[in-house]
Specification:
With 259 residues, the protein is α+β, with helices and mostly antiparallel strands. The chain has one domain. 40% of the residues lie in helices and 15% in strands. It has a 7-stranded mixed sheet with strand order 1-2-4-3-5-6-7.
Amino acid sequence: MTDADELLTILAVTRFAGRPHALLERSGGVAVAVQIDPSEARDAWTEARALLGATGRWPVAITTWPQQAPADWQASVQQLLDPKGFVGKDRPSVETILRGAVGLDLKAVFAGLEDETWAEMLAEEADGDVAAAAHEMQYWFEPSEDQPTAMMFLPTPAPWASVAFESWYAEDDPQTGAAQLVALLKRWHDAYGAELVAHWGTMLQFHVERPPRDIEQARALAREQLLVAPCTALLPGTHPEMHAAALMRSNSWFLHERP
């Protein structure tokens, strides 16, 4: 993994050259945040991802949610990778989270998440438009201009480790803490080539190399996604069966869990 100075040297011949940047010292190492415009996040990630072999740092687009327009990018970007996380709770160190993810029984985690809401979702009539559900999976959230946005070069090459550095709102459920989410993202990476592109606090967006091959595999994946992030389907009103069918047609995932 490159140190901060080496990384900035590599970036000097890319779109990131000369841009404001900040060094964020957290447990697990020093992350380097480079300013991007919200509208360029996908293209910037593609370029940063292509540099992984040289940088050894996983890139992910991250934004803040200021109460008012920030006066200074460098100052406001310090909110990124907040040790208390998106839900404002003390979190274990990155090292503790990553250790805790090893060998977790995800089957037991998902069994513990099944509740009345999930049963009600399954009980609804499985109608709807698969094409519309696939379109929802391809949705790309774009932060507004008053949201400081950065391409974060994390001190790890592992795409699944990103949620150890910055919490996702789904972590607010005691059964889906940071270690469980790290283990889940690793499973999705191993099975589907899912790579985290953007982490917007309540939303995760992935590029997927290998979508599910058959409907049974897609149903199992849909169950995992919707038990962890039920807002993904509940807010647009998508039946789990339609979500599963859409997963077979999409090379990107949009997962949402919010207050």
